[in-house]
Design goal:
Elements (H helix, E strand, L loop, with lengths): L1 E5 L4 H12 L3 E6 L14 E4 L7 H8 L3 E4 L6 H6 L1 H21 L4 E7 L22 H18 L4 E7 L1 E3 L17 H11 L2 E5 L11 E2 L1 E3 H18 L3 E5 L5 E2 H12 L4 E5 L8 E2 L4 H7 L7 H13 L4
Parallel strand pairs: 1-2, 1-4, 2-3, 4-5, 5-6, 6-11, 7-10, 8-13, 9-14
Antiparallel strand pairs: 9-12
Helix pairs in contact: 1-7, 4-5, 6-8, 6-10, 8-10
């Protein structure tokens, strides 16, 4: 079977492509490289450098005739989404709608959507289940909610089958050091903390007065290999069972900002300088997943813990290839 992966030159997308190829799938990567890294695309994938909203997507679908799509392509920086909302509405919402139009006109009916736990805003109940109300606190999350609604409506109209995977904080790197996180600028806590350890620079703690044990935000960090495996199980389920589902992808355990700093110091063997900064708008205090539905529906279980995540990320940082 052929799987088309949008954003397949990105952090999570490229790792998913790697495992799809390893399982014997024919893989087509569509990425405009605005935020992806071409060297991250594994050998063996067909690569089309193109924006997903390009009318030429019709030709891509006609040429490769994919059995399913895994849709990663999106901008994903919370802070940027709040200061440049139109950038996010154009890229995440409008472009995806055009892509879905091209996809459904081509008769491609199966899609797995890269969604986010940011949809839950400040959750009422933690760990967070899929029954938690959707109440996004930032523009990035709003755009993800809009596409989930579009998928729901398209499914109700008989146009497609879908899975929306609301994953928590993607982190880590390939255990062998071949792939990892590489953004410019880098917005995510774990690589920022490890870069501070490596370079002797400082990392900002955005608020220490949250209602958590140490006052800093708590997040559920999930290894990219665990995310990749869940996406493959999800696309297989959508193809084979023609059913729709929404699932949280997380470990069920959370770590605070200060805990990440302390653990990173232990793994790197280096001190990390930290400076306190004001809270960022749109940052919930605690985001930790209840992943029982993903475990039951997909037969999936996270294989890596926070120590593995930090160790793999640190090893990648020492020998980054792109």
């Amino acid at each position: 079977m052929t799987i088309l992966v949008t954003g397949g030159a990105g952090y999570i997308g490229s790792r998913t492509v790697f495992f799809l190829l390893k399982k014997g799938y024919d893989v087509v990567v569509v990425d405009n490289l605005s935020r992806g890294n071409k060297p991250a695309i594994p050998d063996g994938a067909h690569f089309v450098e193109m924006a997903i909203e390009d009318p030429a997507m019709d030709k891509v679908f006609a040429t490769y005739r994919p059995d399913a799509v895994i849709h990663f392509a999106a901008y994903a920086y919370v802070g940027e989404s709040n200061t440049q909302p139109l950038l996010y509405y154009c890229n995440n919402t409008a472009a995806t709608i055009r892509f879905l139009d091209s996809m459904t006109r081509a008769g491609v009916r199966n899609i797995v959507f890269s969604s986010t736990c940011s949809l839950y805003g400040n959750p009422v109940t933690v760990p967070i289940t899929e029954a938690e109300p959707v109440k996004p606190m930032n523009t990035y999350a709003v755009t993800k909610a809009q596409i989930e609604k579009a998928l729901e409506d398209c499914s109700a109209a008989g146009l497609l089958n879908y899975a929306a995977l609301r994953y928590f904080n993607a982190a880590g790197a390939a255990p062998d050091g071949s792939m990892g996180e590489s953004h410019d600028p880098e917005p995510h806590l774990i690589p920022l903390v490890l870069m501070a350890a490596q370079n002797g620079t400082s990392v900002k703690i955005f608020g220490d007065d949250y209602p958590t044990p140490d006052g800093t935000c708590i997040r559920d960090y999930i290894h990219i290999d665990d995310l990749a495996s869940a996406h493959i199980l999800a696309v297989e389920k959508v193809i084979n069972e023609k059913k729709n589902f929404v699932l949280n992808l997380g470990t069920g355990a959370g770590n605070s900002v200060k805990e990440i700093i302390t653990r990173s110091e232990a793994i790197s063997g280096r001190a990390v300088k930290a400076e306190l900064a004001p809270r960022r708008p749109g940052d919930p205090a605690v985001l930790v997943a209840d992943n029982k539905n993903a475990v039951n529906e997909l037969g999936w279980k996270p294989q890596y813990n926070i120590e593995d995540i930090l160790t793999h990320a640190w090893n990648w940082l020492q020998n980054k290839r792109y």
